Target: histidine--tRNA ligase
Amino acid sequence: MEDKAKIQEAIKVQGEVVRKLKSEKANKEQIDEEVAKLLELKARLGGDDGKHQFVLKTAKGTRDYNPKQMAIREKVFNTIINCFKRHGAETIDTPVFELKVPFARYLAMNKITNIKRYHIAKVYRRDNPAMTRGRYREFYQCDFDIAGQYDAMIPDAECLRIVHEILSELDLGDFRIKVNDRRILDGMFAVCGVPDDKFRTICSTVDKLDKMPWEDVKKEMVNEKGLSEEAAEQIGEYVSMQGGKTLAERLLQDHKISQSKQACAGLSDIKLLFSYLELFHITDKVVFDLSLARGLDYYTGVIYEALLTQAGVAQISTEAQNGATSEENVSVGSVAGGGRYDGLVGMFDPKGRKVPCVGVSIGIERIFSIMEQKAESSAEKVRTTEVQVMVASAQKNLLEERLKLVTELWNAGIKAEVMYKKNPKLLSQLQHCEESGIPLVAILGEQELKDGVVKLRVVATREEADIARDHLIGEIRRRTSEA
Amino acid sequence: MEDKAKIQEAIKVQGEVVRKLKSEKANKEQIDEEVAKLLELKARLGGDDGKHQFVLKTAKGTRDYNPKQMAIREKVFNTIINCFKRHGAETIDTPVFELKVPFARYLAMNKITNIKRYHIAKVYRRDNPAMTRGRYREFYQCDFDIAGQYDAMIPDAECLRIVHEILSELDLGDFRIKVNDRRILDGMFAVCGVPDDKFRTICSTVDKLDKMPWEDVKKEMVNEKGLSEEAAEQIGEYVSMQGGKTLAERLLQDHKISQSKQACAGLSDIKLLFSYLELFHITDKVVFDLSLARGLDYYTGVIYEALLTQAGVAQISTEAQNGATSEENVSVGSVAGGGRYDGLVGMFDPKGRKVPCVGVSIGIERIFSIMEQKAESSAEKVRTTEVQVMVASAQKNLLEERLKLVTELWNAGIKAEVMYKKNPKLLSQLQHCEESGIPLVAILGEQELKDGVVKLRVVATREEADIARDHLIGEIRRRTSEA
Model:
């Protein structure tokens, strides 16, 4: 018997200890240990203390993911990681406590001059979360990069092929991959008469073209950024151009833009890139678009961005701007983006040795949101486990037999479950299968045990067949590999 | 042409901007954006600025994981997650900004009364890391729990089966799983004459028995904790007992310990538990050990801990105490631990509704360290990619043909690579295969193209065979599924 007053006193003291440790920012283990003691004291009171100090919500800007959301995430991860692996990528992990260029730092620090790697990790933002806009404090980033001195445009083309594979496999709806080149943009600005020191600001105005009509963009250039009407008009002509290899070839002959050496280098590379994209069979979705101007300054060559073009997606993805990528100016519908950055690694190297890089960020949080929306509007149920078979019985006192059989199945690598009850009702066992989408039930009864068989029931059709115990594992494998 | 002095001035100004934002703790995106601008300015200087402000090391208490380490981690994750899935577990994710009882909070908050789930996540410690002891600021936790009102000991037995499966599959060497029950410990202390208010402190002394000889433990009990010599002696007798079902049966007849109702309840459950463990075929590794006393106060019933018993492991795992589990007192060699905690969820529920739980934490960081050590001392190379075939050529001007073939392979889901060079040397292509363990090379030459075949070379044996192009995918699948 315990004295309640004594425990209540102890809770008070222990509460003080916890508060003190927290105010002193003591180490987490110590606080947790003391909190555990506090919880245990409260447990002894049996909930009689009347009030609960532990608020039932997650911290600001954070949320839980339930099994259904996690199952969707896992499917997305698997599709993406399988694609990276199909292309021979390794993976590395760098600490979360770091600026956004850990890959460049990693290469320079380890003197790595070539690698093809992906990195998928949860990252954190410190600023105010905006959950209504889907900006959470915790979110995933997913990057793929190829570093190394190689022949032009081959790794760049593979990055685009990877984006194409991932978006096709995830079946998110139709998409386009816009391609441009930093050098083409810069060259175009130069020949249109944009002063050097206005390249960046004009570039960021051009970048608004996917959200604003040309007239507004032009107004911003002229009225706010002080560009001449004429220069703006010329830019307007170029940034309305979209095409493929032929457009690149045409522009190489353009009397104006061909005056820029930079632009010509970019255009030649775009031309070469498209010849590789043809061999990779992905030109159906890739478009050379002179209005594409990604925000990050470290890009030195090809840049690209993938957008979902399906109706309805814009709405979903606006709500889902959960810091989708490490890029700043991800536009509505954007699900991937990247480009070539040949200068970044050299900045970290003490001797300035350059390691050319090209990479892509997949907007994985946005993809999660779209997949969740799709799952919700679909009639198909999302399974949260992969159980192939439930070991059940219709009669009493067969727990031991059920445990024996489920052990045989586990030993064979079959995903199997048994209810944690001595004498569960057959109906409740079958209901559990229907609810969690388990396709098969292995039913044991005294007759089956006597005959050395198991009754295998297909949940969807309610068909049943007696299977010799020796053949059960093979039969389960056969039936579940078909699905 | 750019004016270097002008850029250097701009770098200075931009550096000030970054420093100011950092000192104001501005939001991360903003800082990152300004840092990117700074980096770009430096890039324009072409490394001429002479000094590099970016220090090439990771933050204190953190480290990178290279592809080899990540490959080992992935193998461990896969083994563990496959086991959890084989047992029908779902997965959830809870925010990292939370005390160590997120699962209890999650259940109470969502009014979930039964679930079988795992959760693998990176967590962070705020206190001073001790990297020499393997205590890093970032580390993984891996938990599996079964929540719900079920018949006694069935889920508990499954947790032990899961630990047995994981440790067997990971092939870490021989292991033991010690089992005890909180109620047996408490009952034993009571019948030995330990005062109520000394249960916890005596319990933590008992817990040191795996690191200290009995004589020292006894001394601590008597001299430091003020226990009577007689009580200590009686405890000493009990805690030296190890066995299985028979020991539980014998103690149920023990004139002393059977006086405690609590102890009897615990002993009956241990007896029942062992009968299920027999059906699960895992009694070879499980031992009922009255000296096992896990530190956390929230345990209410069965407790257990898995230890590696192999020589040499102790040394490895001492170095590898990277905050391995959420448990405090993980002893040397311990790789998993857990128990039943029936009171915790109720503390979070406004109405105090209880949800019985039993769970296990896998010491995944420790397992990583052991696997890394094993890999280092083994002659076998750890592959960091899964590439099945390299598409190569011996002659010049076949880049297009290589890209066409690799596209065919990717379309068929084959993991394939091609070198990013127009005219790579055959030797360097073969060397790359040897270095990264790629088992097959598909070699294209003009003769092969003419004949409609591909020369398939086995890297290990150097055997070569001409395969009709139509049969290539099937042949690659056949050869790599054998491996």
User: Anything to note?
Assistant: Chain B touches chain A through 108 residues (CB under 8 Å). Confidence is low (pLDDT under 50) at residues 47-52, 312-331 of chain B.
